[in-house]
Fold each of these.
Amino acid sequence: PHPQQPLKNSTKVGICSSVLGEEWTADVVKSIDALVGSCVVLPCTVSHPGTYLSTSRLRGIWHRKDKWEEFFYHDDSTKILDSFKGRTRLLGNLGQNNCTLEIVDVKDHDNGPFCFRIELVRKDTDQPSKEKFSFVEKCADITMIHDKPQLNLSPIKTATQGKPYTLTCSVHHTCPSHPPQIKWNRERKDDNITEVHKHIHSGIWEAESILSFVPEEKDDESELTCTATFSAGIKYEAKFTLNVKRQQNYNHIIIPAVAVTATAVIFGLFCVLMVKKYNMWNRMSRLSLLQK
């Protein structure tokens, strides 16, 4: 097949002839959601037969599926479609088989399909050779999201005065290079805030902020708010009213009980002393009578 024909698997064409006919392959995320105004990453890996090829020998291009010369990304920025100029870049290193594409400031029309093409570059001229492989049967579609993303607060439970309390705010996103920033409406001196970033699955990440503090009586019925700020300044909030259970105060029982016990002990000691004193007086009186 001709190198510029749609290829599911590149076979024995140009670059592959020197490596015993093995195939070039690419894996691209098939579909992904993106928040309009934010950014999105299209995960992509490419593999080639034979020995290692440096990034300088390879050129990665992203183009339309039906119009191969309309470029979403090209290392020559003058060739990129005007509507995508300044908004796309390769995150990966082609020499390490990473062809991941990032799109920032996502627009309504950024729905693709986005197809990846790789070209072998000549060593002497740094110009592309005839060996070009487009993987048009493995293109990515983007579904635009206009609704606000779901912020999750957990666990929602009653706090206890004087005991450590933890609340987690999390949100999914599609851009690890510009993750949403999560802030709380309370950041007191003794509060502890931990940020965690997780890769959930292909093209989806999670930003998480964990707030830990010791509630006081004055925190009862207070409102806790976490705000996630996405790229382009888009903000979303989640709120929670904190209920603080007061610790039982047994002083009104303990103090009187201690006082009564102490009084009883003192009174008992006094009685013992009085009895001893009476017995001593009684013995002395008897001795006096006998002497007479």
Amino acid sequence: MALVFRIAMQLVGLLLSLLGWVLSIITTYLPHWKNLNLELNEMENWTMGLWQTCVIQEEVGRQCKDFDSFLALPAELKISRILMFLSNGLGLVGLLVSGFGLDCLRIGERQPDLKKQLLILGGVLLWASGITVLIPVSWVAHVTVQEFWDETIPEIVPRWEFGEALFIGWFAGFSLVLGGCLLNCAACSAQAPLAAGHYTVAEIQTQCSCLEKGTADPKV
């Protein structure tokens, strides 16, 4: 029963981490970190991401323009690009390392200590991946709130608001953090004797060989 619970915790943690990693990649390239609705022209909406700005018009459709220079971007967008790339890399390595540490995988089953270390390392990498997603998403959201309530900007000027990518990024970050914590909890829990079946088979084979040699008890 303990083995089944341990394996289930590992699988749930790995699936949550995989979901968070996929959503993190989507967040990186989705041009909806900020939304801008024009009151004067309700048929025109603006969106901004880490790589481009888009305008959506009912008659023309979507038109996007990439940012001309990385150095000309605001600080939060520049740092967000770097952290999102770092998060995607950490998530990929964490998933691969955690996969080799799963108890249900027969590779390295005679080395439980090594599998435990791989599982812990993968959980830490996935946890770090989640944190590096939450930092840029929360930073951009904080700057958006500050600019929205900035009293120095005239009220007639349109304000940027939260885009869908921010909510996807928050969900991705919490999924990665929770998945990494579950993997670490599963690795640190009491390990069940996975190789008990191998010992039983080996003991039977030893008894059979001893009987063939005429010895009644192999321990004698």
